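Posted in: Structural Biology > Protein-Ligand Complexes

Title: Requesting predicted complex, zinc ion in pocket

I'd be grateful if someone could produce the 3D structure tokens for the following input. Sequence and ligand are given below.
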Amino acid sequence: MPELPEVETICRGLAQHCVGATVLSVFVHRPGFIRGGSNQSRLFSGLTIARIVRHGKQFVLESNCGRVMLFHMGMSGSVTIHPFQSLRAPHVHIHWTLTQNGNKFELHHKDPRRFGYVHTYDNMSLVHKNAWSKLGPDALVISTEELFERLKNRRCAIKAALLNQSIVAGVGNIYADESLFQSQIHPLRKAHSITLRELAELNHKIQSILKQSIRGGGSTIQNHADALGRAGTFQDAHKVYGRGGEPCVSCGAILKHVLCAQRSTVFCSHCQLKKAR
Ligand SMILES: [Zn+2]
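-- Reply #1 --
Done. Output follows.
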């Protein structure tokens, strides 16, 4: 599933190519993919893209008249730029034709597993009042004090709390496992038992790993690609995610595999402690 760095990578590419571009036409190949009204003109037909805003794993394209398209990327969503009249790959559910400085190009929204969608809103404040009101602060900017406040009464595992988008938005399975490993915190520790000092380190690791991944174009495990269709490279830097049964890069112990919040969780039982240090 695209997490914060993968979605940020897509947004940066789209911002470079699409801001200032005008939408000439929209083709909806699978109408079930649109929420908030299926009228094609609501999908920016005739409008110009003014800016792109991301929060957690979601982002919006905002038009010059204030109308907004929110992209939920589901398990396998991508939004990529293609030459005008190029062949559509399978599973492209919506495509837009845009023009900028006399050049025409296309935007393809593809989602093979179909858990994603595009939701239209009349303005940005409706996004904040609806879709984003259920999300916690963005993981790249949340302060340690705020994260501590949000975790101090949670009796669930810290891994489950990090995956809960209403606590902090943007962290998924990959970056939860990687940041808990680098902070030496056991994924099944109760969230409320993490001390402020430990949390300061965890928050620092989360934010630095997310930033490193963004610099690497995100992690491509199955189908993440940036706006130009290029794979990310951060998967090569994963220390625990997807490495259950292999030796720990730090101590050599065999990495363990447990299920937490229905997600596969990999950790080192030697490096990651169940008790506060
Ligand atoms: Zn270890």
